[in-house]
Amino acid sequence: MPVLQRKLARELTENHRDYTGLHTGQERVFNAPDKKVRAPRLELHDVHTICDRDPVKGRIWFTGNPWPKGHAIEKATWSGRLDPGGALFFDLHLESASYYAGDRPRTEEDDDEPGDWKARGVWANYHRCSLSSTKWGHRGVRVGSPETPFDWTKLDGKTLRVDRAKEVLPTFADGELAAFHIYLLGHDAVADHAIRFTRSRATWSIDWKAKIALAYTGHRNLAHRLRAELRGLGFSGFEIPTGMTAKAARALFAAAVTDPAKWTIARRRFVRA
User: Fold this and answer.
1) How far is residue 120 from each of residues 45, 62, 95, 98, 103, measured CA to CA in Å?
2) Which tens digit of pLDDT belongs to each residue from 261-270?
3) What number is the average pLDDT over the span 81-95?
4) DSSP conformation letters of 62-83
5) CB–CB of 64/234 below 8 Å?
6) Angle 256-86-267 (CA atoms, 0-180°, nearest 5)?
7) Backbone phi, psi, residue 237, to 5°
8) What is the pLDDT of residues 126-140, one digit of tens each?
């Protein structure tokens, strides 16, 4: 077991945390202050699961909206998948707190503010934001393929660009979906993403910038901007397609990464060994 995983396992044991949900392996006994406690042996996939459960901190801003200090992020996940065609994708999903969280109560004056983007009352009608490639089945970010294999060792400090656009939403081929969808002031649209990944010891930070079109009200102009900061993320691995055998998945995966020997399968996901 690598040093980081051994450290996590040791800290969990010493702190006598809850082991609910971990796979039951060979039990071992350790001393607690008042009694001996039995806990399941930690496996590789258990440590990845624990990383995924770490609390994520973050905030999202929508430039020019009524809350210049932004909104807290209540939920964020970073996952991946192996496409049946042999490509690798990153998926991201985040949900903000209520737009009014921590703010003064809504008043009648909020409904009189000009323009949807600056009107608190309009924002209150839609409650909170979801920005996601998974919630509505969107494309995500392609990060690897046999033609351009994915190199995990070069992800730290890298910025991924997807659905590039300047002033108007990009046009997609029939049947093709955008990388991400956004629920903001209704079901709007988002493009021109710049997503930067930074490693910090056991977890990752993501800095995300994008442009927004208020598509719910018929607009295609990318007139607005968002910025999100996520801290404390763990990567859950690349999911194997439903119905695909592990042998077939290994063959496809090996062609789409630079270092297949550094990955292993846990719970039908490719994770770093």
Assistant:
1) 45, 13, 19, 12, 11
2) 999 999 999 9
3) 98
4) ETTSS-TT-EEEEEEEEEEEE-
5) no
6) 85
7) 105, 175
8) 999 999 999 999 999
